Amino acid sequence: MSRALTVVALLLASATGARGQADLRFETVSIREGLPQSFATSVARDSLGFLWIGTSGGLARYDGYQFDVFEPDPDDPASLPHPVVRDLLVASDGVLWVAFNTAGAARFVPETQRFERLPAGPAREGGLPNEQVFQMAEASDGSVWFGTASGAARLDPETGEMSHLRDGPGFAALSVTPGSDGAMWIAGSRGRLYLADAEGLTRVATLPARQVEQVLAFGGWLWAVAESGLFRIDPASGAVRQFDDPVLLQAPRTLFAEPRGWLWIGTAAGFVLFDTASERVLTVRSNAPGNAIALPTATPTDVLFDRSGIFWVATGGAGVASADFLTSRFPVYQARPGDSASLASSSLRAIASDSASIWAGLNDAGLNRIDRET
Predict the structure, then answer these.
(1) What DSSP element (H or E) covers 133?
(2) Would strands 320-324 and 27-29 be described as parallel, antiparallel, or unpaired?
(3) Contact 104, 133 (CB under 8 A)
(4) pLDDT value at position 4?
(5) How many helices (H) and strands (E) does the chain have?
(6) CB within 8 Å of 192: residues ≥ 6 apart
(7) DSSP3 helix / strand / coil % (the chain, rounded to 5)
(8) Positive or negative CA dihedral for 125, 55, 70, 53?
(9) Are 274 and 230 in contact (CB under 8 A)?
């Protein structure tokens, strides 16, 4: 997954303002528009502006109007190695890396429109330790890291040499997240979290989770999502805190941070917005039918906020959804069942405001106050 991407703070602040989240209205592209499969696994934007979408049925390049689809050809060793794309990474040198569930990884060569495959498997010298690649990330020193079912691998940007890092037999590197000074945070099997560099692994913490989906370095903390919820880790001491809000226990898969200190946590029910400052859930962007700001009814699998202000969400079953932060300026407040932070009723009788609050008089549920900051 693309995980946490650098976001232009001024752009986002101007699009959403201090009064709350933008009224993001999502549009979807899927099979009908030319995507090879509705199960999208990853999304990335390259230096030329093309949007790349990994699916379980091939790789698609989107120019905003139409798709170019890359699929495997058994008679062509330079074609896409496998139809099931697991992750995408556009490195700082512009190279597009593609990871696969059972075929290792490959780099895309724009001049030839072909793929150069990395050797993979325990018996392949100088290649990946396993053909199952979960995630990829680039460190600050330009090295490219691969999290695989047999540990992590680091590709040296200067020599092109591949080194392997693991913590004993049966060790899998499920998530790789850039740290500082060329280091990488690695979530291993059995909930173990490591700090890695070219010299090796250092275990930092152990989370009460079988499988960590994603780790994010943000605000001086490490944040992680797993099947058992949201965790915050102190990178210095290794202390772990688990948040027990019920909406955070819905098997979160993706994690995205925006400059205001909000985490967008992708779950099967939609996005949970979590404020890292107050350490509480702000609201749930449900994918339930009838919600005016609904996501497609499918679990978010990857997120991307690109330089043009578009928020892209890859979903497991509904293709890719997008919303424009620049044109979606109007907040919508409505009653959402099960969400105590939403209005108690959508039937309004009166409305007023002051510098800190919006006051809503409801026909059948008393008086509500909307905090402008949150």
Answers:
(1) strand 133-138
(2) antiparallel
(3) yes
(4) 35
(5) 1, 31
(6) 167, 203, 205, 206, 207
(7) 5, 45, 50
(8) negative
(9) yes
Cα separation, 248 vs 327, in Å, equals 29
Q: What average pLDDT does the structure give for the chain?
A: 86
Report DSSP state, residue 10.
H
Q: Between the CA of residue 222 and those of 3, 138, 207, what are the distances in Å?
A: 13, 17, 12
Residues whose CB falls within 8 Å of the CB of residue 165, separated by 6 or more in sequence, listed in order: 151, 152, 153, 154, 173, 186, 196, 200, 201
Residue identified by tokens 């994690």 is: 255
pLDDT of residue 21: 46
Q: Assign 16 a pLDDT band (cuts: 50, 70, 90).
A: very low
Q: Among all chains, which residue has been given the structure tokens 């949150």?
A: 374
Q: Who wins on pLDDT, 297 or 320? A: 320
Task: Give the three-state DSSP class for 200.
Answer: strand
H or E, element range at 128? none
CA angle 241/242/245 to nearest 5° reads 135
Q: What are phi and psi of 9, to 5 degrees?
A: -60, -40
- pLDDT given at position 338: 80
* Lowest model confidence (mean pLDDT) among 14-18, 65-69, 170-174, 349-353: 14-18
The SS3 of residue 95 is: coil
Strand residues in 11-73 grouped as ranges (E): 27-29, 40-45, 51-55, 58-62, 67-70
Of the candidates 102, 16, 106, 8, the one whose C-alpha atom is nearest the C-alpha of residue 52 is: 106
Radius of gyration of the CA atoms of the chain, in A: 21
Q: Cβ(148)–Cβ(130) under 8 Å?
A: yes
What is the sign, positive or negative, of the torsion defined by CA atoms of 222, 84, 249, 257? positive
User: What is the chain's length?
Assistant: 374
Which range has the top average pLDDT, 2-16, 49-63, 255-269, 346-360? Answer: 49-63
- Rounded Cα distance between 55 and 86, Å, is 8
- Give the count of beta carbons closer than 10 Å to the beta carbon of residue 292: 8
Q: How many CB atoms lie within 10 A of CB 61?
A: 18
Both tokens assigned to 14: 């101007």
Nearest-angstrom CA–CA distance, 212 and 232:
12
| Cα-based torsion angle of the residue sequence 291, 294, 298, 304 in order, rounded to the nearest 10 degrees | -160
The answer to whether 183 and 197 are in contact (CB under 8 A) is yes
With a threshold of 0.90, does the pTM exceed it?
no
